[in-house]
Amino acid sequence: MTRRRTVRTSPAFFEQLDLQLGDTRGPNGEPSATDFLVFELPAIVEAFATRFDELPEAVEGVADARMAIGTGKLVRAFAVYGLLMADDSVELIGVEIDLDR
């Protein structure tokens, strides 16, 4: 059976997301922060919950800081950063999004 960690998002994650996408869709159909949360985040959370140890280190040599890098349904690419906490949960602390398609 696959080990599953609890995954939480930090206030910093939401601040970074809002700065990059905003609260409404753009005039040319650019996704909103809510769109990212609904369409992209579930698979990202699943990766951190079930494959944390397999994700690349966010900082070389720091095993407790990992990142999920991928292409999205609505965004060209993303990198989400997570930290392993003392209670064995993962806290998502940052996000970088590339919208260019």
Describe the structure in your own words.
The protein has 3 helices and 4 strands; from the N terminus they run βαααβββ. By secondary structure, it is α+β, with helices and mostly antiparallel strands. The chain has a 4-stranded mixed beta sheet with strand order 1-4-3-2. It has helices spanning 11-21, 33-39, 41-51; strands at 7-9, 65-70, 77-84, 90-98.
Please give a handful of descriptors for the protein shown.
4 strands; 101 residues; 4-stranded mixed beta sheet; alpha+beta
Q: In summary, what is this structure?
A:
The chain is an alpha+beta fold.
Task: Chart the SSEs and their pairings.
Blueprint: E1 7-9, H1 11-21, H2 33-39, H3 41-51, E2 65-70, E3 77-84, E4 90-98
Parallel strand pairs: 1-4
Antiparallel strand pairs: 2-3, 3-4
Number of strands: 4
Shape: elongated
Q: What is the C-alpha radius of gyration, as a whole number of Å?
A: 14 Å
Runs in which pLDDT lies below 50 for 5 or more consecutive residues are none
The H/E string reads: EHHHEEE
Portion of residues in helices? 25-40%
Distance between the termini: 38 Å
Label the structural class.
Answer: alpha+beta
Query: Taking all residues together, what is the mean pLDDT?
Result: 94
Largest sheet: 4 strands, mixed
| Helical run tally | 3
Portion in strands: 25-35%
Question: Reading side by side through the largest sheet, how are the strands ordered?
Answer: 1-4-3-2
